[in-house]
Design goal:
about 180 residues, alpha+beta, Pathogenesis-related Protein p14a, 4 strands, globular, CAP_sf
């Protein structure tokens, strides 16, 4: 049996195949550079404040920052440091396995992107956030950022020292209480 393809059908098939094969891959945002820039800016601010310590990235605090970032990104009623489930930065850090005093800064931008300058402008002019960034006792930091078409959220969680052993964080859906919470 011989298959005959008419010109319109053949052209449509060719266009379909070429658009499928030549379509650009879906972009996945990699905010590592932005997150690392926030850490570098905090280091600079601490050094200018006279700190002789070197703030370092802590994976537990980064996980706590990731949880809150996604919670704020997906719950538009949130605009600060309390989660949709009522958790505080201390709750999230403890649930991520960090044992120590913590604080947090959160930046929300009503756009697809945010720059380091915009983040610092939001945090610099809030006395509590300014004090957090300049606190020489904050030796650990975790930063996470996410963005969607009309909203970008950046969260930095700062710690004064982790007394907890390294532990894997329990999985949970954002906006839900972790398994060990009542």
């Amino acid at each position: 049996m011989k298959m005959v393809v008419t010109a319109p059908a053949g052209a449509a098939l060719a266009v379909l195949l070429s658009s499928t094969l030549m379509a650009p891959p879906a972009a996945l945002a990699d905010n590592r550079r932005l997150n690392d820039g926030v850490v570098a800016n905090v280091r600079t601010m601490q050094h200018r404040a006279g700190c002789d310590t070197e703030v370092r990235i802590n994976p537990k605090l980064r996980l706590a920052a990731q949880w809150h970032t996604n919670d704020v990104l997906n719950n538009r009623a949130l605009d600060g440091d309390i989660g949709s489930d009522g958790t505080t930065v201390a709750d999230r850090a403890r649930n991520a396995g960090y044992i120590g005093e913590v604080s947090e800064t959160t930046a929300i931008n009503p756009a697809l992107a945010i720059s380091g300058v915009e983040i610092l402008n939001q945090w610099w002019y809030r006395p509590d956030y300014y004090a957090t960034m300049h606190d020489c006792a904050n030796i650990d930091i975790g930063v996470w950022s996410e963005n969607i078409l009309d909203r970008t959220v950046v969260v930095a969680v700062y710690g004064k020292g982790d007394a907890g052993a390294p532990v894997p964080a329990p999985p949970r859906q954002f906006g839900q209480r972790p398994p060990n919470q009542p």
